[in-house]
Design brief:
The chain is built from 7 helices and 8 strands; from the N terminus they run H-H-E-E-H-H-H-H-H-E-E-E-E-E-E. The chain is an alpha+beta fold and 199 residues long.
Length: 199
């Protein structure tokens, strides 16, 4: 069995990990140590929104790694979302072994890449290509104001951002992996002028 990657190793990872190198607890720790409790400020060359203050919260993690799809058929599906899901990971009620259970195995397989590529999220936000996203150009249900993306191992990693209503802060709405550039093509590119990380 492969050695589990630490939170620090996940921060600087250069290749897609294999499942046996990951635990949900190390993913949660990586998220807590390197993404949460910070503000990532992006200065953009975009008159309508010159500054993005991105904040990651406990409530976002389970959605970003696809639990809403993996556990959607569960009678208590909401227990795997938001803070409740985050707590289940932190207290080891959910582990990578959970995904081997027959009732969710197929759904996990459909969404596995979101978890395997999730550790690259820190590197993505430190060096993103940014687009102002118009869902009507693609006819998609995904609705988000900005998409940050980059490519890795013939995959395109996307992080969608939206603004908290009535504030200047943004939250991560979605994270997804694609083999093609459908969500990038014909969108409006935005130049990033500066990135600051503050605690």
């Amino acid at each position: 069995m492969a050695k589990l990657l630490t939170s620090e190793e996940l921060k600087f990872i250069q290749r897609k990990p294999i499942e046996s190198e990951l635990s949900l607890q190390n993913i949660q720790l990586f998220y807590e140590e390197h993404l949460m409790n910070k503000t990532f400020e992006f200065e953009l060359d975009e008159p309508s929104q010159p500054i993005i203050n991105l904040i990651f919260e406990e409530d976002n993690l389970c959605h970003l790694i696809g639990f809403q799809h993996i556990f959607e058929a569960e009678q208590n599906a909401t227990d795997y979302q938001g803070y409740l899901g985050y707590k289940k990971i932190k207290e080891c009620e959910l582990t990578m072994n959970t995904f081997k259970e027959p009732r969710i195995k197929a759904k996990y397989k459909e969404n596995r890449e979101r978890i395997l590529y999730f550790p690259f999220l820190y590197q993505l936000i430190k060096n993103p290509t940014v687009i102002l996203f118009s869902p009507e150009k693609l006819k998609t249900k995904i609705s988000t104001e900005f998409i940050f993306y980059n490519s890795l191992n013939n995959r395109y990693l996307h992080l969608g951002l939206d603004k908290h209503e009535g504030t200047n802060s943004y939250f991560p709405r979605t994270f997804f992996v694609r083999k093609n550039t459908d969500f990038i093509d014909n969108q409006t590119p935005v130049k990033v002028l500066q990135i600051l990380e503050t605690v």
